Amino acid sequence: MATMTQEETAPAVRRIQLARQTLVFALLLMLLVVAFTVSLCVGRFSVPAGRALELIWQGISDPSRELTAIDERIVLLVRAPRVVLAALAGAGLAISGAGLQGVFRNPLVSPDILGISQGAAFGGALAIMLGIWGFPLIAMVFLCGMAAVILVGLLSRINGRSETVTVILSGLVISSMFSAVVSLLQFIADPNTSLPAIVYWLMGSFATATWERTLVAAPGLILGSCFLWMLRFRLNILSLDEAEARSLGANTIRERWLVFCLIAVIVGSQVAVSGIIGWIGIVIPHAARLLVGHDHRALLPAAAVLGAGFMVCIDTLARTATAAEIPLGVITALVGAPIFAALLRHHYRERTGS
Predict the structure, then answer these.
(1) How many other C-beta atoms are found inside a 10 Å radius of the C-beta of residue 104?
(2) pLDDT of the residue at 138
């Protein structure tokens, strides 16, 4: 019996791979729905799952009706916007991390490498110290995050070109500069009023989530993620060697900076409403890559769903584990660091074959 050639087996292998990716994606969606439901139910005031889902359906079908019962107000006005915002933020950070790791061809890269979070942190700390709240604070945070990316672009551009190494180094320089300025603001802030607010905001939290804040952050998070997914084929090319990418017709510098700008929009929108939340953009893409592989066509949506579910679970833990809400940055570091260490060991064993 003649053996099958590589050309004959490739379609079958591709079908098996697609079926596996579809199954993984379906399981991740189911886990996300479970995380949503649990987060809506648990808290100091528990709500049965059936009642919570019924309230969500009533809120969708008749959004203008008056909310009178206490469980209606808790589910629809307190927990629902928080869960939605956490899911959008987690998805945005995860897809940003996956995109950056592909562009830089480095699994250790996260959105922090461009200085976006630190620039946005400076905007938020300055706004809090000046007594600016609400939409002006969100606008200042977003603009400072975008300013950080612009500064990285200007600093990394040498002889009309921006190489990968210079972008990374420029991002570290700008990040360190903004971190130093934030520390200076903390030093001169009023220790009785603005300083505690700055410190708590920098550690990340969805405690102030409302439907208004969700609507402010949603356009940047959703549109940025969607446009990044539309570049999934280009990300596959950009993840190749520089010479190979150019031979396939990619304008690596222009397309790389397009990805950077989209990530700046996503991360800036997230930091503007919930402060700095670390580790999501570096841990979740690794986990998604283990589940669906390196192809960005499957990696980006898998990372987004996994990031959304992970963030919802972390936020639920933050507000229910103790009487006082734990800042998200603390939990993501405590949970993310061991997971990342395990993923690194797994990755190393795969590469060495041991």
Answers:
(1) 18
(2) 81
Predicted structure pTM score: 0.90
Query: How much is the pLDDT for 92?
Result: 96
d(CA 254, CA 323): 49
Runs of H (alpha helix) within 45-163: 49-61, 70-73, 80-104, 116-129, 135-156
Q: What is the pLDDT of residue 10?
A: 67
Q: Which pLDDT belongs to residue 115?
A: 87
Return the residue matching tokens 């949970």. 335
pLDDT given for residue 6 in this prediction: 55
For residues 218 and 212, what is the distance between their CA atoms, to the nearest angstrom? 10
Nearest Cα residue to 123 out of 102, 138, 133, 101 = 138
Measured between alpha carbons, how far is 336 from 38 in angstroms, rounded to an integer? Answer: 21
- d(CA 323, CA 137) in angstroms, rounded, equals 28
With residues binned 3-state (H G I as helix, E B as strand, rest as coil), the percentages for the chain, rounded to 5, are 80, 0, 20
Residues 228, 252, 257, CA angle at the centre, nearest 5°?
50
In SS3 terms, 207-258 reads as CCCCHHHHHHHHHHHHHHHHHHHHCHHHHHHHCCCHHHHHHCCCCHHHHHHH
Which residues of the chain register pLDDT less than 50? 1-2
In angstroms, rounded to a whole number, what is the distance separating the alpha carbons of residues 337 and 343? Answer: 10
